[in-house]
Amino acid sequence: MKNPGDDLGMEVRRLRNEKQALRAEASSHQDLKLRIDEMMTFLDCLPSELNEYDEQYTRTLIDKITVYDDHYIVEFKSGIEIQIDQ
User: Fold this and answer.
1) Do 1 and 39 belong to one domain?
2) pTM above threshold 0.70
3) Number of structural domains the chain divides into
4) Res 23: pLDDT
5) DSSP alpha helices (H): ranges in 1-86?
6) 53 and 41 in one domain?
């Protein structure tokens, strides 16, 4: 015969794990929101039109550019990626 306490204990562990996963996800969303807010503040301070390359602007916005034979992937620090086809 199965002990009802075993089922209850398993359910408590499952709920604790789920709670921990939700907290981690919320923290990740908060970090992303903070990065986006920082980017928006930076962008608000820039002139509305850029006519030349700006090193600070580029380094603040772009995390990585990956070059492939037929396209590029630009990864922004906000987590957004875009593909540029040649």
Assistant:
1) yes
2) no
3) 2
4) 92
5) 4-44, 55-61
6) no
Nearest to 86 by CA among 67, 60, 59: 67
82 Cβ contact list (under 8 Å, min separation 6): 73, 74, 76
Interatomic CA distance for residues 71 and 86, integer angstroms:
5
Tell me which amino acid residue 39 is: M
Q: Tell me the residue range of the domain where 85 lies.
A: 49-86
Residue in this structure with the two tokens 């593909």, named with its chain if needed = 83
The amino acid at residue 19 is K
CA dist., res. 33 & res. 40, Å (int): 10
Measure the CA–CA gap between 18 and 15, rounded to whole angstroms: 5
75 contacts 67 by C-beta, under 8 angstroms: no
pLDDT tens, position by position, 36-76: 888 788 778 777 777 888 888 888 888 999 999 999 999 98
In this prediction, residue 74 carries a pLDDT of 93
Lookup result for tokens 């990626």: 81
